[in-house]
């Protein structure tokens, strides 16, 4: 939000998602309010870059960028949030204004009166957890008073002042929480609640709802009237590329009509999913369905396509259960079920009939003793009485909806499925259940396809990156090429390519899921579509061979050392011993086993042709920051600035091993700086970051090279010379130098371990246990080499000094018990320097 004395919405960038509940007129009015208070509003009809947005105003979660907005922690709020913020003259809380339907108490501000303490705490806790707010006193913002009678002071005050808040029984909150849905509060309103006044078996009007309009069947009837008229032009397909599958079983005439509508609305039609935004099919199977789903396309059925045409408004195909392709063999476990309905009518009844059939069960209009389930909206009807008499399972519609959404039969012992509020027809909350993409992925398009029998078994599987949904595939399988040779797009190819170039990169789903490439499913991964496991195997073999060649001198030296008389010890020998002691730990630690690979997996890279399709420039600079104060205490600014830097080819990394540049305010001896220095990076001032962000481009590096003469004099090191030596050392300054460390050293052993490892040294913690075999100088004709112990001045550390000295001498070693200053000076200067002043015994305790 704005500064304390500045406009309320200063530095805020808003975007409005227009819908039937947020029309243009209301958005224009809210836009004027935002701009009057210092905010910026993106034009309604323009595409927007999510990283630039600070607030999304929407009355629905049905817009394409919603999932990515949640990942980036962008607030998505209803338009009433703006008014609430103005009333408070500060940023209002986000939770009460979320359009997320799972937050069932959003827009509820509750105050309680006359309730037992335990009940009050439980109700308030549930309201807060599900998007609502609580206030201890009655205010203009209060929407509900929870009470047992209207005799209390708050209730009398609300009645006397004719406030709009509703006085409800706690039973309403209880029933909402049991169902996990928000039901109508009217039967619970005091002073004369219907749940106490009426008999539960008395008739209830059938609820009317339009939530199932166009979503009650997976095979819709008549095509909606075209909306591409001068009065209401079809815009939902603007710059979208749609692929219509052959499994829809529609006539060529109807297909032509649909294609004309898409093209007339500014869209394109393609017969290959590689370059599409939307894929329309009927079944959850087949190569195209799997490929489209893994690419993160909007995958829906014909009913969903009709809904887009009829309403000219985008909706996620996962929002409505019958808008998503059907499982061809139903849901496991439903085959032997015979299900009937009661107390549902209109679209709700049609919807449940189709849902039962789609799940694989048999639907019956009448009920007999061989029925297995009765789905009812109330626990009052002839069928309900018969179900209890014949011992037939009686559940509400949440059971069939959630079984279908979760792709497995849900347990009937869950009280949510057998709860029936006394004066509520549960048809009013039908159609609110949605799909969870993660569940669908595990069941129908898993990211880890089984490799071919002849494929080698990989120790670490290659990453499968998401395909950029906006760009056509640059590499295809032979079968893809054959298919595309026969394609005839409705629009000319040139126009299609223009659309592809105009489109922005879309969010990917299920990022960084490991999978081996597969010959049988080549082209389904988000990386190189024709890669096979053998490619990854060759790459691994190449790396292994290069490491063996690099290690050849050491191997030869080791073979020579083995011929010595007596034990093998001394600089190289001690290092080998330390390495041998730590091998098991390193090999069993995933974090250490693949440090270099992990960097590739965790950060935005440009090493494969795939990454060039993301719309981001190749990474030119891998920047590590240390001591930079611009992001302290402001995580949101840090994330936004990092995205801006990435947009100009700068990747901010935390791995000192792979960084190419370091930004620091001065020459410092921090762990990150010293670890990074071992790689010989370009070291810049922190102003480089601010300039890149402000100008939106990379300035000349020479203008920002770190110059710090004061610290150079202080540490006795020329930074330019140190960087030159680091490049020559190639991270092997301390190679074959054994360095031990006490467990109680200041700053902890891990701090020094990282610096030692970054410079190729061998590290171990010394606890006083023997670390060498007793060897006499006569048995070892090699020169005595130094072995180091980093130590502070604590009594527990000093107790180790005599043991370390004795054991080092027994191994024909020169013991050096040093202060940590020795390591810091060595790492900073990139020289293996030594003088007696580093000895710990010379330091004052």
Number of strands: 26
CATH architecture of the domain at 604-652 and 658-729: 3-Layer(aba) Sandwich
Described by its quaternary structure, the protein is single chain
With strands numbered from the N-terminus, the spatial order across the biggest sheet is: 2-1-3-4
* Secondary structure category: alpha/beta
Q: Helix coverage percent of residues?
A: 25-40%
CATH class of the domain at 604-652 and 658-729: Alpha Beta
Alpha-carbon Rg, integer: 34 Å
Annotation field: number of helices: 29
* Poorly predicted segments: 227-231, 451-494, 502-539, 562-573, 583-614
Main sheet properties? 4 strands, parallel
Question: What is the H level of CATH, i.e. the homologous superfamily of the domain at 604-652 and 658-729?
Answer: BRCT domain
Q: How would the global form be characterised? A: elongated
User: pLDDT average, as an integer?
Assistant: 79
CATH topology of the domain at 604-652 and 658-729: Rossmann fold
Report, as a whole number of angstroms, the end-to-end distance.
Answer: 51 Å
The proportion of strand residues reads 5-15%
Biased composition (Polar residues): 210-219, 508-517
GO biological process, one term: double-strand break repair
InterPro entries: BRCT_dom, BRCT_dom_sf, CellCycle_DNARepair_Reg
Domain BRCT: 4-99, 100-190, 232-322, 334-417
Description:
It comes from Mollisia scopiformis (Conifer needle endophyte fungus). InterPro entries: BRCT_dom, BRCT_dom_sf, CellCycle_DNARepair_Reg. The protein has 29 helices and 26 strands. The protein is α/β, with parallel strands linked by helices. Among the domains are: 13-97, 3-Layer(aba) Sandwich (Rossmann fold), CATH 3.40.50; 109-197, Rossmann fold (3-Layer(aba) Sandwich); 338-441, BRCT domain (Rossmann fold, 3-Layer(aba) Sandwich); 604-652 and 658-729, Rossmann fold. The strands form seven sheets. The protein has a four-stranded parallel beta sheet. The chain has a four-stranded parallel beta sheet with strand order 6-5-7-8, sandwiched between helices. The chain has a four-stranded parallel beta sheet with strand order 10-9-11-12, with helices on both faces. Helix 5 (153-160) links the parallel strand 7 and strand 8 (166-168). Helix 4 crosses helix 6 (170-179), helix 11 packs across helix 13 and helix 22 (671-677) runs parallel beside helix 26. Mean pLDDT is 79; it is low at 227-231, 451-494, 502-539, 562-573 and 583-614.
